[in-house]
Amino acid sequence: MSGLADALVHALGWLPGWFVVLLISVIPFVELRGSLPVGYLVYHMPILETAALSIIGNMLPIPFILWYFPRIEAYFRRWAWWDRNLDKLFLRTRRRARASIVRYGPAFLLVFVAIPIPTTGAWTGALIAYLFDLPRARSFVVILVGVIVAGAVVAALVVGATTLWWLGLIGLVLLLLAIVAMGWWEERKAMGRRDG
Asked: Fewest beta carbons within 10 Å, which of 98, 131, 139, 194?
């Protein structure tokens, strides 16, 4: 469990466990990687309930990032400190993701969100979609699938691979199917451009 998630559990111990799990899953960089272990190990919630709350909480800010971030960015850029730090964040994110986005498109976004390690996840995936002007509705679906896969992987790790090995397998199959479907869709789109 991350230090931030641990601190939140202690500070918010008077709140119901489901709310704490939901709240932790909304926090950038912690996301469901922190909320799933908290729900299962600290509050002893059933793993499927914990996973569902974590996925819902992790996805709550994504529509706001995809659809409303230009307004939020414009508002914060009025102050020099925010303007300077947003430039640094955007430059670093563009530099790290540019080659992969150009080469793999949405498949990269899906894998990026699905790998449950620090600095990856739904928040950063939504920022990448915003910075590279990817279609918003499609990015939302791709990020959702990535969050579900990440949830399956984290749940399998939290409960133990012997108990929930099938959940990790389902997550892997979902990931592979989504990558194949996106490749097929891109191929069909390219063929349509050539025919038109």
From this structure: 194
Q: Is residue 119 helix, strand or coil?
A: coil
B/e letters for 78-107, b = 16+ CB within 10 Å, e = fewer, are eeeeeeeeeeeeeeebeeebeeebeebbbb
In angstroms, the CA 62 to CA 56 distance is: 10
Q: So where are the chain's domains?
A: 1-60, 61-196
DSSP strands (E only) in the chain: none
Distance CA(135)–CA(107), nearest Å, equals 13
Residue 147 phi, psi (nearest 5): -65, -40
**What share of residues in the chain are helix, strand, coil (percent, to 5)?**
85, 0, 15
pLDDT per residue over 98-140, tens digit each?
A: 888 888 888 889 889 988 888 889 999 999 999 999 999 989 9
Mean pLDDT of the chain, nearest integer: 84
